[in-house]
Amino acid sequence: MTRERDDDSATPPVSDAPAADLHVHTTASDGVLTVPELPDAARAGGVDVVAVTDHDRVHPDLDAPVQTLDGVTIVRGIELRVDAGDQRLDLLGYGLAATDSIREMTTRIQENRKERGAEIVDRVEERLDVELDIELTDGIGRPNIARAIGASDAPYDFNSAFDELIGTGRPCYVERYVPSFSEGMEVLGDSCAVVALAHPFRSSDPAAALDRARDLDAVELFYPYSGASAEVEDRALVEAVADDAGLLLTGGSDAHDRILGRTGPTQSAFDPIASRLPSVPY
């Protein structure tokens, strides 16, 4: 899916002030913000551009790849989990056009997500002898279930629900369908103006993940890593790969809460991304 790149797509200098937050989740997947709440949250976070990148889903309330809402530019995007063989990675697509191929892929994933969510809920309820207050709709993810566990009579909060019950390898965990890297790259390449590798240092093998990024348009440099991921973060390595492969530098808060603008691309990093998006009104 490698695209031709303009001469001005070289890696820009890096500073700390975000001009955009290009990694945000809403209630269409496992976030808490609704679309009407995005402008106020963006202004509070000091950014004028927000990319809605819900997990494996085209947001049903956004009707264009780019639009303006109450003075804030909203980029329709997606975060797609893919299987690279040696590890699973997350890809970010920006300026998403609702093609048949992306609709078909996300429909298959969402049906599987609901089936998986129902099985996880059944396992949790049987194990803890509780009834969870949760609706198994499109976009359902483990954070939704963890919140429901925390709100129940069970002796777990959000974090301990993951750590002890529904995290990978835990007793109530259920595997789900994930498309291959090549399938995801092809579908996103057909539907999105820019395709990026998300948070490489959250992967099990960051070097291999960054090597995969060479086939894309961009890589996420600006990201609020924490814990073990923060210990291995190497911004210089990301910038070196981006320079060598001609990749754009993207990023965002990965907000699942209401706080936007924790990080994101600087203006000089965002400008070449904006130039590839359809009709960015800024």
What would you say this structure looks like, in words?
The chain has 282 residues and is of the alpha/beta class. It folds into 2 domains: 17-97 and 192-274, Metal-dependent hydrolases (TIM Barrel); 107-166, no CATH class. 35% of the residues lie in helices and 16% in strands. It has 9 helices and 8 strands. The protein is globular. Residues 1-14 have low confidence and may be disordered.
Question: What keywords describe this structure?
Answer:
single chain, 282 residues, alpha/beta, eight-stranded mixed β-sheet, 35% helix, globular, disordered N terminus
Quickly describe the structure:
The protein has 282 residues and is an alpha/beta fold. It has nine helices and eight strands. Helix 3 (142-151) crosses helix 4.
Q: Runs with pLDDT <50, length 5+?
A: 1-14
Structural class: alpha/beta
CATH fold title of the largest domain: TIM Barrel
How many whole angstroms does the radius of gyration measure? Answer: 18 Å
Number of spatially distinct domains:
2
What's the shape? globular
CATH homologous superfamily annotation of the largest domain = Metal-dependent hydrolases
Give the helix/strand layout.
Elements: E1 20-24, H1 38-44, E2 49-52, E3 66-69, E4 72-83, E5 88-94, H2 100-128, H3 142-151, H4 158-166, H5 181-191, E6 194-197, H6 206-213, E7 218-222, H7 227-232, H8 235-245, E8 248-251, H9 267-274
